[in-house]
Design goal:
The chain has about 130 residues and is an alpha+beta fold. The protein folds into two domains: about 1-80; about 80-120, no CATH class. It contains three helices and five strands; from the N terminus they run E-H-H-E-E-H-E-E. The strands form two sheets. A three-stranded antiparallel beta sheet has the order 1-2-3, with no helix packed on it. A hairpin with a 4-residue loop joins strand 4 and strand 5. Helix 1 (about 10-35) packs antiparallel against helix 2 (about 40-55). It is elongated.
Length: about 130
């Protein structure tokens, strides 16, 4: 089965916004310098410096996908899912399970479905 790797920058629009803001500061700074408005020029130079710093340290979020040709399956790399973010997302469900469920109740979540499952029976199978 042939696999195709794909990547995209998820937060590119945020970086483009920073770039547009920096360009606006630069254009206003040029105008202030041209008109001899030193006080506003210094203010704009400081704002431009801060904006450029934000651009220098900007953390691009890259989404990676592996596309398996033949089966149509796409696997996404969740990238930098922080444990705190996962905990914040799942805590309400875990609380609900603790209150309403039992040790045999699970919740399965996909992008298009949420299932509450209860295990009826399970036994290990010995391997020969």
């Amino acid at each position: 089965m042939k696999q195709i790797e794909s990547e995209r920058i998820v937060n590119l629009a945020e970086f483009e916004k920073l770039s547009r803001e920096a360009r606006a500061y630069a254009l206003n700074l040029r105008s202030c310098l041209k008109n001899g408005n030193e006080e506003n020029a210094l203010y704009l130079a400081e704002k431009l410096d801060i904006k450029l710093h934000h651009m220098e340290v900007f953390d691009f979020v890259v989404e990676r996908r592996t596309i398996n040709q033949g089966f149509g399956g796409i696997r996404k790399d969740v990238g930098r899912l922080e444990p705190e973010e996962l905990h914040k997302l799942c805590r309400p469900i875990a609380d609900w399970l603790e209150e309403k469920g039992d040790p045999y109740t699970t919740v399965e979540i996909t992008a298009d479905h949420i299932r509450v499952k209860q295990e009826i029976m399970g036994i290990p199978v010995e391997k020969a």
